[in-house]
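It is worth pausing here to work through a concrete case rather than discussing structure prediction in the abstract. The textbook approach is simple: state the sequence, then state the predicted structure, then interpret. We follow exactly that order.
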Amino acid sequence: MDTLAMALLLIANVSMLAAGYYYGVKFLRRQHNLLLGIEWLVIALSGTNVVFLAATGIVHSSFSYHLMVFFDAFSRSFGMTLVIVLGMMAVTRGYRPSWMVDVGAVGAAVAVGLNRTLDVRPVELGWAIFYLVMNLAVALFMFAVAVRLWRIRERRHAVGVFVATALGAFVAVIYDFFPIPGDDADHTLFYILALSVWALMLVTYYHGYRVLGEYTRGASHDGSAADAAVVSGVVSPQ
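Step two, the predicted structure:
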């Protein structure tokens, strides 16, 4: 790995982990969304672990390497898929899952992560197809979120979510099936691309969620105000 590639990889990874910590805390403290907060922080911890792994040397038998495998499987299975859909439904459908659903979604991701951690052989075809199907399914959901943002005239955020989702789907497709020509044994070029795209997704998805939440609360407030005006006789019902 040459110096430029190493620098680009470090920048991409730090961007991803910084976005994960910053917006993960925002999801927990400002948006009160446990699922999305957890997933964003898991990605941030994954990025932090990668920095440590790179600094100490990649040893496949090390705890840090197994932790990397765990985080990768956690997010690719149910983290950046089912967890994102359930979390986003708070502003797309007004649905807040119960704590049992939260535990079930996170527990499923943990179970897959542990399964892969105990078996660190290259990803088998069945797992690769499973990861791809899950990621493409959530991409369709996020494209619908982008359309919703466009319809409420949040064009900049709609384009951001759409572009990030399209790039994320591209990364998911090439992850296990189409190595980048000329890439090295550590898949440096792929990870520069993937980490950059994942950082973009963390940022755009948070802001898409935020503006949808603000729009929903505003629409609810306007509707309540109109109902109150009708009841009080200030305006006539249509």
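Step three, interpretation. The first helix runs from residue 3 to 29. DSSP finds seven helices and no strands in the chain.
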